[in-house]
Amino acid sequence: MRLLFLxxxxxxxxxxxxxxxxxxxxxxxxxxxxxxxxENAAHGFGLTPEIGRALFAAGADVxxxxxxxxxxxxxxxxxxxxxxxxxxxxxxxxxxxxxxxxFAAGARKVLVANVMGRLFMEALDCPFQATRALFATxxxxxxxxxxxxxxxxxxxxxxxxxxxxxxGRASLIVGTHTHVPSADARILxxxxxxxxxxxxxxxxxxxxGMQKAAxxxxxxxxxxxxxxxxxxGEAAICGVFVETDDATGLALRIAPVRQGGGLSEAMPEGV
Amino acid sequence: MRLLFLxxxxxxxxxxxxxxxxxxxxxxxxxxxxxxxxENAAHGFGLTPEIGRALFAAGADVxxxxxxxxxxxxxxxxxxxxxxxxxxxxxxxxxxxxxxxxFAAGARKVLVANVMGRLFMEALDCPFQATRALFATxxxxxxxxxxxxxxxxxxxxxxxxxxxxxxGRASLIVGTHTHVPSADARILxxxxxxxxxxxxxxxxxxxxGMQKAAxxxxxxxxxxxxxxxxxxGEAAICGVFVETDDATGLALRIAPVRQGGGLSEAMPEGV
Amino acid sequence: MRLLFLxxxxxxxxxxxxxxxxxxxxxxxxxxxxxxxxENAAHGFGLTPEIGRALFAAGADVxxxxxxxxxxxxxxxxxxxxxxxxxxxxxxxxxxxxxxxxFAAGARKVLVANVMGRLFMEALDCPFQATRALFATxxxxxxxxxxxxxxxxxxxxxxxxxxxxxxGRASLIVGTHTHVPSADARILxxxxxxxxxxxxxxxxxxxxGMQKAAxxxxxxxxxxxxxxxxxxGEAAICGVFVETDDATGLALRIAPVRQGGGLSEAMPEGV
Amino acid sequence: MRLLFLxxxxxxxxxxxxxxxxxxxxxxxxxxxxxxxxENAAHGFGLTPEIGRALFAAGADVxxxxxxxxxxxxxxxxxxxxxxxxxxxxxxxxxxxxxxxxFAAGARKVLVANVMGRLFMEALDCPFQATRALFATxxxxxxxxxxxxxxxxxxxxxxxxxxxxxxGRASLIVGTHTHVPSADARILxxxxxxxxxxxxxxxxxxxxGMQKAAxxxxxxxxxxxxxxxxxxGEAAICGVFVETDDATGLALRIAPVRQGGGLSEAMPEGV
Lengths: 271, 271, 271, 271
Ligand SMILES: [Fe+2]
Ligand SMILES: [Fe+2]
Ligand SMILES: [Fe+2]
Ligand SMILES: [Fe+2]
Ligand SMILES: [Fe+2]
Ligand SMILES: [Fe+2]
Ligand SMILES: [Fe+2]
Ligand SMILES: [Fe+2]
Hints:
The structure is a homotetramer of 271-residue chains. The first copy, chain A, has 271 residues and is an alpha/beta fold. In chain A, 24% of the residues lie in helices and 24% in strands. Chain A has helices spanning 11-29, 49-58, 75-80, 127-137, 156-165, 212-220, and strands spanning 2-6, 33-37, 62-64, 85-86, 100-105, 108-116, 146-152, 172-176, 186-187, 193-195, 237-244, 251-259. In chain A, helix 1 runs parallel beside helix 2.
């Protein structure tokens, strides 16, 4: 089965690039299931229902979020009625929305989860325990045909510890949040494909997607600065492509996807 | 001028790979100046004089450090007498060693600095101000022919803000510390080559170079665990190659370097 | 019912002062139940079985811990067999020891818990949820006659938010960890006695109980310094005294206890 | 000489209590110089020029700030023309306003500084080095008759390390920011009076001055909550009184000041 994951979509530049490219990219890659992290799609901070609908319409099967999940409050009533939109699984009991779901891809079932790290991030319940509980009820190659986890975390150590902890139980574990694609796509010994970070879909001539001058000023000064706004140059689309073994749900190959925006291009061979 | 930078060398696997590969890599790339981050070369924590000498002997012109600079105390007397070994520039006044230096590469002069970020790291003086002061006395294309800054930092935002702040004043600004190579090598509008993180030289079947089981246990448990030790499988060598314009010191091209250890290979075209 | 709580015992100075004073203090106050935070009793870092036994022998009914719980590994087998020694309740599932217990004080039953905050501290499961679960099975004035919670946390905001959240369900909620007694002892509107921090039992001519020069050097320098060791001057004993209503378990009065060591003395009136 | 320092004034309750009480308190204590931390005076976040003027009119000689210095932007033009208002000394070069000043108190001169800690706070230049530089130009008992430093910091360890580092060079070093008065007022061996935290002037039936329900909800949930607003019950006034030796500028006595708001009352003896 062919899966495509795209990293944090940032602002207008990022979402317009994704919306424009996704139909053709999906076809070119033969992707049967597409997950997009949308936590920064609305002006860099959060997601609106309207933008969520546009991303679904462009070909995303599931959208994930992260620490910016609720930056736009209007997403809260929307997520209650939209099971294809996931917020971090390890948010406190009682949080609106869902952190994981099983979705149909034709005759196949795909488990998707969004889980958030804790190192250098907010205080949350343990993402490792939450994921262990999730896999106690979903078995790759048994109850689901593929499993994709978006681990939204700052520290490379936490993302890698997470991936090794669940190696063999997911098709793909992919990091998000740093807004920089890592060049370490690989299949772990247990058969799970992994990349420390998918990178963002946004304008890289920026500070993690935001306009350079205002963002840099925050490191130079301790003053209320200009508001941060997304950079508006040409966006790169960054993500990860995985092909799974239908018998086991494990990964047969992983390849980074990078297109446009001044980054070096990357596309799976033979597509 | 051709510059090669290699990211954090981790443990025996990392340093033996670098020592074995560097002579040939240097020749193949025609690299005239080589900088290696060695903060994890001694069993994952710090650097010893003996390992420092071995890395110089293998072809490193300058070694940089980071938050693990003093993990091995015997490096302190050594650094006092070894100007080619740099510790973070923005360490407090009175800290042994130097944070920057100008080094000869044949008839050319290369400025190298090691500077440390603050976001999610220790309390330090401002790396931006320290670097501004450095460039007040060293002008690229005027007093030095090339300038390379290793910005040792956790957050992608801080590294990118730093790079944009000094775009046009350095040949290469390259991040270290996350131990994951980023796939965003590019030349910024002002002519400075940049990659958010060089990645480590070490065994990637690990948690940032350390053995998986013990490192992952730290995220699952709050108990004194096994000591962390470097992973000992085949190491990947990760770094960045830059070619500069001799007239200006600015970058003409940047290319990631990745070799061995199960990562996808990357080498500049035409070498 | 009369309860006495003593804050973090630091090193030899702290524990010798507590061991010497506790029998008389207990008698003078008519304290029927005594809880002591012992996380720093062993040379400032952790607790040994031997020191634990000495504190029990001197009159402590229960000992609590905190982020230094496991600094001395020999406490781990000891805690397994010693229900009177409590480690943080919200440590991960599978952690040795217990985080709460119900203890006999003559014919009465006292619930004691040790819970750890997260703000500026380690990643842990939610202390608020853990405590909510605890009170779901223990009702003050119904299943237990008194309830005392040691909330080991850095931030005053988290300790106060915690206290208000459980106001009316505990006899005493008292903070530990900052090693400084707060002067805000009061009974909250719901009847729970509260003091943001009990303060340490140790030598205050120090940096939170550790020798001044080495501890201050860590703020001035980024170098491997002298090892920290507890200050050895006269220790102050710091804690909180509470008298409860036997019918409800709620607090009738709270008074700080401070004795010796150069701090202003404080003792409940009429004792 | 008699000095009075009042801790973080929080919101309307805090500032109205201070404005009402200060004239009489000043007279009762015979205070010749009064410093008030005003970083939370405007609805809990920052200070407005109008509130600043009201505090000066009520008897404050100098106002200090902290991490909330710029929460109200209109204070920035005001501070440029008001030398009696101090922001953190170790803010970056180029920051508006001043971090220290020498002020006349009759025929005497008083040095006042506001300096900010770094542990668990923002990235700033070293407060220890900044203060060392300050004392290189101002000598207690030589160029100034008294010196008072408000060290605005989270961690008790940093505040105590700071106090010991400058023991003998200031009349009073007093912490702010935790919004809880510490019960550890004392004169250090070198003659500097010290209290780890002055406590806030505000309503203590709150979470550090803010309304309980909304503030506690932030620890229970990860959702955009109600906005925080200051608690509006009766405020306690919290501070520190110091009497100095006119010959040396060192402290002869220190006494906590607490008045109203349900905290235990404290006032220097004999006033
Ligand atoms: Fe993001
Ligand atoms: Fe994020
Ligand atoms: Fe490193
Ligand atoms: Fe590092
Ligand atoms: Fe402690
Ligand atoms: Fe502690
Ligand atoms: Fe404050
Ligand atoms: Fe503050």
